[in-house]
């Protein structure tokens, strides 16, 4: 079992070879991130790449009229800072902490040095391939989220959102307000209240004062649309869990 404060609690860092892990470990900085903290703004080059261990980060699309919607979630299965890997630098969305916790961060220059696009040098091709597979999984999540928000009911969207969040934490309880959920789904708060009420009536969740507890995960999975399984299957296929994190 990997210690909670270990960098290897992050799936990507936990999959590193011994040599690469030893090389990067002195450069990894453990930081605590709080709910609502913005890791990077759209249009700006991030100073760090973040590898969450216990926090969860939302990739949020901001509209000029002040509304927003969540594109994807990043937990301990991934990293935040795709633009530094692809060479694009900036991103067109905001990265905001949706669940406080810990993360390891790596300075931009150190991360870029691992994959020097200009010289074609790569310190660890296996690590690069793993990150690229993560990018593919992330693209799937973003695309499926867009399709779900367009074609499925808010009841199904809420069920998917709850399951995706549960996958990125060890507890069956979410500390979250309906206002936050509405902002992430890009819908009215009243619609979230109605959908949550239906789930509660079916005995699948309880909701009180910003706390949602899932009482029956199998029951919740029976209510969700296919979007959840499409994304989960792709993540499981592309990002196998290291043996020491499986317990």
TrEMBL record:
Pfam families listed in its UniProt record: HTH_Crp_2
An annotated Gene Ontology molecular function: DNA binding
Keywords: DNA-binding, Transcription, Transcription regulation
Segments forming domain HTH crp-type: 169-216
SMART domains: HTH_CRP
Secreted found in the keyword field: no
Gene3D superfamilies: Jelly Rolls
GO (cellular component) term, any one: cytosol
Keyword Translocase: no
Protein name: Crp/Fnr family transcriptional regulator
